Amino acid sequence: MSDSQVRIAGGDTIRSLHADLPVNATFHIWLKATKPDVPGSLSFSNVRGKFGEVSVTNAEEYEFRIFHVFGGGSVELDYDTYQTSVSVAYWFALADVLETGITVLHTNPGNAPPNIPDSYHFRPPFGWMNDPNGFGRFGGRPHLFYQHYSHGLRWNTMHWGHAVSSDYLRWRHMPIFLFPSEDLTARPDKRGGAYSGSAVPLADGPGIRVFFTEQVQDRSPEQQIQLTATSSDLITAGNADVILPYRPLDEGLTTDFRDPYVFKGPDGRWKMLLGSQSDEGGVVLLYETHDHTAATGWTYIGKLLVEKHYRTTAIECPCLLPLDGPATDPATRWVLILGLMNSEDQSTRRKNLTMAIVGWFDGQTFAKEFEQELDFGTDNYAFQAFVDGDAIVGIGWLANWADTGPAIDFPTAMTLPRNIHLSAGELHTPPIGAAESLRSHILDRTRLAAGEQVSFINGAVEILFELERPGAHFRLKLQHPTVRLEVVVDDEGLAICHEDGGAAESPHYIAKGARPKRLRIFLDYGSIEVFADRGRWAGTKRISGFEPVQSARLIAETGAVLHATVWALKP
Ligand code: FRU
């Protein structure tokens, strides 16, 4: 039987997507040929008939095509699934996409987002996501870029996804921002892409300059080099230029050389941190430039820090921020935040921890005062922050590489955005104030405090309670269909007990010695975030799947709970 006969026997293989367009719409479409010898294509038509087509010959990986439709109106996109597979199709109008977002017309079962409309954590509109990138306020609005692969729920060739918000909580999805080279996108073979980085406002005029690592696995001698690109419309990035083609010489570094974080130093010059690895441990490298545009002139200053904590191998996604005063004041303390790749706290089995180190930064060196874990739950990785007016705002990847695997789909979210500040000599990371705007209505103010079971109407819930004295013991039992989940304070400290019945014993997510008085707990489909004493302790844990927590019961000695409130949240 010939192929065409199979096709007729199989019935209708044509798929149509419909769009009602404003004038000057842009389509982004990723398609591939289902067979190596037959091109794949997708056609555009309106009432007057077919007026355009995009096509590909690649049968290994989805290829990106842009198509502009100038006239507006009702448009059909047709393709034959016999010879064409479409991964993603969305459209937008460049003139107002910052206000309206993209309109996603098509995803497929392999890259579709979960259907959880009540969920209030940021997730990509399709595909895989890891680190936050380029987090900042540009043109008046918070922008979030992120590590992204569009065509599946597993890590692969890295692009930068993009979203815009006005409050850090409700995001509009933007077109994909950074694309790796065509050589890398030709095959889904995980050889690299546009890795993590940061963004700063353009020096002369509106727009941003982004910095990122280009990873090409089989490139020698440098797998990882640093690139920069600009965008004046905040939507499309121009061509990227190499700014650091080599690691610093004679520093004993491995090929790890990534995640440029650019910020203004105390001397007014642009500085760049990079994460690396050496025999001595994980390394933070410092560069600077005298170029006020940050485009050129990047020179190596030295190793800002060598970190051996928890036997870390490499540092990932370092960031450095002035904490308790202006960057230019030598008395100002700074906080250096680091992902400790491959670290393991042997006593709790927690992996890939994130440290926050407080000290002084004079533009060249960092003098440590004290350090703290950023998040005892460890599902707040690759945390990135910037100074927004008079507050630091940061966000992390609500996951941990230790739980991922090449063979499992692993949909993830970002953490709630958090502020960072010093209070009585300790670092606090509470959720941003606007998180209160998620509150919809009170579910309970009496029963939880009285030790009764409180049922939730959906999976978006905030629980607050205050203890009669710091460190009073309690056990908050959270009923979940597949995971044993509790928040506990006992003599050891504050812990999230999480057992998902997996083969390996779950790590012990604990802030040792914590004796909190006030608890604020956010539950969402697939996550729990615990903030104690206004962010003095923060614990974030991903929960596998999207089942909601169904109810809570608070077990404590009589009189130990002063009051408790349960809110239903609404995105
Ligand atoms: C951290 C990280 C970065 C790298 C990116 C790749 O999660 O490993 O170091 O740039 O992810 O996606």
Automatic annotation (TrEMBL):
Family: Belongs to the glycosyl hydrolase 32 family.
Ranges for domain Glycosyl hydrolase family 32 C-terminal: 516-567
Record lineage: Bacteria, Pseudomonadati, Pseudomonadota, Alphaproteobacteria, Hyphomicrobiales
Any GO BP annotation: carbohydrate metabolic process
Record SMART domains: Glyco_32 (SM00640)
GO molecular function: beta-fructofuranosidase activity
Keywords: Glycosidase, Hydrolase
Domain of life the protein comes from: Bacteria
Enzyme class: hydrolase
Gene3D superfamilies xref list: Exo-inulinase, domain 1 (2.60.120.560), Glycosyl hydrolase domain, family 43 (2.115.10.20)
Organism: Mesorhizobium delmotii
SUPFAM superfamilies: Arabinanase/levansucrase/invertase, Concanavalin A-like lectins/glucanases
Name the UniProt record assigns to this protein: beta-fructofuranosidase
EC number(s) stated in the UniProt entry for this protein: 3.2.1.26
InterPro entries: ConA-like_dom_sf, GH32_Enzymes, Glyco_hydro_32, Glyco_hydro_32_AS, Glyco_hydro_32_C, Glyco_hydro_32_N, Glyco_hydro_beta-prop_sf
Domain Glycosyl hydrolase family 32 N-terminal span(s) in chain numbering: 121-428
